[in-house]
């Protein structure tokens, strides 16, 4: 079956999903319906803002439905009326009950940003970086009622670079997800993809990122903190307190120096070096409340830091 002959409904919300939707449209797939979460308040004025997926759909002239849930026949009415061959799901953020999963002729397939069964759940990109994984990838999965537990249809790996943040890794995974779903759908329709059950061993869960996790625990080893700085960029960042001022850390690396946890060992244009439970952290990009992210040299001109001062736990 050609791309144009395959009727594809799409469900997704953030930019990760928008990349996949753009890829499907560019490849010529017939996308008659997009499901996305309701518009949410955003920005200083808390104005209702459409999701990235809704904006792509609007630009393409695709019908959009935004139910809060898919539990009732009324909430599933648009999807049922669409009668899709397949529903592609990417970071939708709304649970699909069995009644919704049963609507498409070929079922529902999910674009998941990990190599399943590692990092099932809400934050696979963040958790892979935080854990120090050497690689991650995209899994195209046939959805069932569980949390990312369905059989795998197609997967491709991607190396995690030593300086990857969630931002940079997200962008590469989103592009890979778009490529893989474009490849997978015609093969699925032609019966050329075997659904393979996920291994029982190696299951891990990527819990949603909580703001409370952003507080730096200086008793941890420097390499652990450095990974968390990268994993929590752009949200929620890592924060510590100095002289009653919360300071966010956006770029950091492990340093050779050693000192007491939280103690400033050195502060200069090359970085602010802070002692950890093991080793030290050299921070090179920082931010104060009400200001933007700055390179350490610029930051120190407006907020000098002296050797011997101590960063302490900040309420996240």
TrEMBL record:
Gene Ontology molecular function: methionyl-tRNA formyltransferase activity
Residue ranges of every copy of the Formyl transferase N-terminal domain listed in the record: 7-185
CDD domains from the UniProt entry: FMT_core_Met-tRNA-FMT_N (cd08646), Met_tRNA_FMT_C (cd08704)
Its EC number(s): 2.1.2.9
Reaction(s) this enzyme catalyzes, per UniProt: L-methionyl-tRNA(fMet) + (6R)-10-formyltetrahydrofolate = N-formyl-L-methionyl-tRNA(fMet) + (6S)-5,6,7,8-tetrahydrofolate + H(+)
Residues given in the record as (6S)-5,6,7,8-tetrahydrofolate binding sites: 114-117
Residue ranges occupied by any Formyl transferase C-terminal domain in the UniProt entry: 208-303
Transmembrane helix listed as a keyword: no
Gene Ontology cellular component terms for the protein in this record: cytosol
Keyword hit for Ribosomal protein: no
HAMAP family: Formyl_trans
Family: Belongs to the Fmt family.
Function (record text): Attaches a formyl group to the free amino group of methionyl-tRNA(fMet). The formyl group appears to play a dual role in the initiator identity of N-formylmethionyl-tRNA by promoting its recognition by IF2 and preventing the misappropriation of this tRNA by the elongation apparatus.
Name this polypeptide is given: Methionyl-tRNA formyltransferase
The organism of origin for this protein: Pseudazoarcus pumilus
């Amino acid at each position: 079956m050609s791309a144009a002959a395959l009727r594809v409904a799409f469900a997704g919300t953030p930019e990760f999903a928008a990349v996949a939707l753009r890829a499907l449209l560019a490849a010529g797939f017939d996308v008659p319906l997009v499901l996305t979460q309701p518009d949410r308040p955003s920005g200083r004025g808390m104005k209702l803002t459409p999701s990235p997926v809704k904006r792509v759909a609007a630009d393409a002239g695709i019908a959009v439905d935004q139910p809060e849930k898919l539990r009732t026949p009324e909430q599933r009415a648009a999807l049922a009326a669409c009668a899709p061959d397949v529903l592609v799901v990417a970071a939708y953020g709304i649970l699909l009950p069995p009644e919704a999963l049963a609507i498409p002729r070929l079922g529902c397939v999910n674009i998941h940003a990990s190599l399943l069964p590692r990092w099932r759940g809400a934050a696979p990109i963040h958790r892979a970086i935080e854990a120090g994984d050497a690689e991650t990838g995209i899994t195209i999965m046939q959805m069932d009622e569980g949390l990312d537990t369905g059989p795998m249809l197609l997967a491709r790996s991607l190396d995690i670079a030593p300086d990857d943040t969630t931002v940079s890794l997200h962008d590469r995974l989103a592009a890979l997800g778009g490529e893989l779903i474009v490849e997978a759908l015609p093969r699925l329709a032609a019966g050329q993809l075997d659904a393979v059950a996920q291994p029982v061993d190696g299951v891990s869960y990527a819990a949603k990122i909580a703001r409370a996790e952003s507080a730096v625990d200086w008793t941890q080893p420097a390499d652990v903190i450095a990974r968390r700085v990268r994993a929590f960029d752009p949200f929620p960042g890592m924060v510590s307190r100095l002289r009653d001022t919360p300071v966010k850390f956006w770029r950091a690396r492990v340093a050779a120096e050693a000192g007491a946890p939280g103690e400033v060992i050195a502060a200069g244009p090359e970085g602010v070096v802070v002692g950890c439970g093991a080793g030290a952290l050299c921070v090179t990009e920082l931010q104060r409340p009400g200001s933007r992210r700055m390179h350490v040299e610029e930051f120190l001109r407006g907020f000098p830091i002296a050797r011997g001062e101590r960063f302490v736990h900040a309420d996240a």
